[in-house]
Design brief:
Elements: E1 2-4, H1 7-14, E2 23-31, H2 42-51, E3 61-64, E4 74-77, H3 83-86, E5 87-91, H4 98-109, E6 120-126, E7 139-146, H5 155-162, H6 189-225, E8 247-255, H7 256-265, H8 271-289, E9 299-305, E10 320-326, H9 334-355, H10 359-366, H11 369-386, E11 393-399, E12 406-407, E13 410-418, E14 427-434, E15 437-445, H12 452-470, E16 473-474, E17 477-478, H13 489-540
Parallel strand pairs: 5-6, 9-11, 11-14
Antiparallel strand pairs: 1-4, 2-7, 2-13, 3-4, 6-7, 8-15, 9-10, 12-13, 14-15, 16-17
Helix pairs in contact: 1-10, 6-10, 8-9, 8-12
Length: 541
Amino acid sequence: MLKQLSGLDTMFLYLEKKRTPLEVSSLQIYDPSTAPGGKVRFKEILATFESRLDRAKVFKRKLLEVPFSLDHPYWVEDKDFDIEYHVRHISLPKPGDWRQLMIQISRLQSQHLDRSKPLWEVYMIEGLDNVEGVNKGCFGMFMKMHHATIDGFSGQELQAAIHDLEPVKIDLSKHVPGSRAAQGEPPGNWGLLARSPVNTIRKSTKLIYGIATAAPGLIKAGLARRGKPSTEVPKTVFNVGRASANRVIDGRFFDLAEMKEISRSIENTTINDVVLTIISGAMRKYLKSKGHLPDKSLVTSCPINIRRDDGKHADHDNMVGVMNVSLCSDIADPIKRMHAIHEATIESKAMTETIGAGTATAIPMNLPAPIAKSLLPAVTELMSRVGVTPFNTLITNVAGIQKPLYLAGAEMISLMGVLPVVDQLGLLHAVFSYNGRISIAFTACREMLPDPGFYADCIEESYNDLRHAIFPVSMGTEKKTPKKKLASGKKLARKAATVTTGARKATAKKAAVRKRAAKKAVGKKTVAKKTVRKKTTRATA
């Protein structure tokens, strides 16, 4: 296997620094009670991974650098691949609670992957006995992948490779550790150098063509923006200075059905609008508590999959563009903020379509290697020094499978994502949905966000603010409004008033019925007593 990395893939290699490893990760928690026998051994997980190595190309390939960086590197098969190097077994110290789990994966996320080996590692984590909502005996899996080898869309291939749709136990008697087919020799340095001039000419041609193709869309977008107010991005504590080498990670889980109900209750909105509203409210709460909430709205970057339906980009590992969306954080009311975010998202999508979704990636995708390796880091360093802030945070939303997945027979019960931090961008959010639950997790520079537990609480409070605004509480009992779409906060208020009035009338009606029944019962008892007295008098006579 010999495959050259695309310009977009190598961008994540060239932009990586000692302080900021560019790795995407996931934390998954499993319940082994579903496995045959009720438990899963580490050697069964090792065997599961080793038996599935051929199902995903990312597992056994490593980088092959071109001498003097005259061309982008290649992916080649690792002849010395060792599954026990990549799949590791660790345990949390006691008591093994959620905070300790977050500290552990924060440390792991801060470490660089070894570029001489396939760019992934998996840590099986035991000792989760005091994680709230998790049964004793459950274990975690923290999987790290370099961003050069995977994005949110291609990551689904990886999940499908190692999981089953039913609890299947691997047959260890048929497993032969370390067995694999013989691999061919990769080309030598001279062979790689011989390819580089042709590749440079080809990429330069594509670059010129890409810029020429993008020009009409950029001009059209500029004309469309003329006369509109500029969307200046305010600076926050997350966008000042360099990111440190230390990370903090945390997140919260929510019911996907309830989030869909929130979306259905506000006219024309989507799950993505709900997510942006929650995160906007969380950032607003956090910054306001620190006295750093800017007057202007925060702006987020949202990655979008730009793979073409014709399969032309199917073989690329990273095919992702971005669009900037206002978070409308200057609006306190959560329902009004959600309406504003919905409108901002529509406008951003229209602008992205005008420019072309792939325009932003055309330059890094086709830059010749010698230019890309020196130019891209220099541009980002200059932006950091000057203080240019293109956006305040990044929010990626990945829709996962809505049915249970199993690893070596153990059911996955929760999933959350982890993103890399870079200079000028010290807070990023990963949103993953799986089997009826949705996680909103964040990764941050520890110096920029030293209190991750508090920010996680802000996320939960923001969700509850939106939920209670749409499903108001009346008569001491929370009552959801009907599923009919509601267009504004005023309608919600009127509907809440109707529910309250109806409840009061129903209560009064029931009280009247009980009162009449009580009077009737008292009358019957009086009649019965008189009858008894008469019978007693007759008997005495």
